[in-house]
């Protein structure tokens, strides 16, 4: 069953565009990482584009680090106790930081912790 039966194309298309922008990925990079053709992703992004199959939507969502539900609706309605919904900016920072070498990751973490202490001191 196509996900498009339940939701409009515009929601998915706009959410996909937004997540692509936040991720910094190009369409061809998303396609390659999701195991799809660039033309297929271009079709999802076009005004007359179709909705992806459930399998394609899952692949895209995994690459972008979001849920399929978020791509379709723009919202996360199923929140588990151990799940925190992060903003696109925080997800982007995490995507970038996870590509750093472990030593650099430690430096970034120390920097963020220092910023937090500074903020707490002056708020």
Q: Can you tell me the overall shape?
A: elongated
Strand proportion, as a percent range, falls in under 5%
Instruction: Indicate the percent of residues in helices.
Output: 55-70%
**Helix segment tally:** 7
Q: Could you tell me the mean pLDDT?
A: 82
> Which radius of gyration do the C-alpha atoms yield?
17 Å
**Low-confidence segments:** 1-10
Summarize the structure.
With 123 residues, the protein is mainly alpha-helical.
Q: Could you walk me through the main structural features you see in this protein, from its secondary elements to its overall organization?
A:
The protein has helices at residues 9-23, 27-34, 38-45, 54-64, 68-73, 88-97, 102-121. Mean pLDDT is 82; it is low at 1-10. The longest helix is centred in the C-terminal third of the chain and has 20 residues, at 102-121. It is mostly helical and 123 residues long. It is 63% helix and 0% strand. It is elongated. Helix 2 packs across helix 3. The protein has seven helices and no strands.
Features:
123 residues, mainly alpha, elongated
Secondary structure: elements and pairs:
Layout (H helix, E strand, L loop, with lengths): L8 H15 L3 H8 L3 H8 L8 H11 L3 H6 L14 H10 L4 H20 L2
Helix pairs in contact: 2-3, 2-4
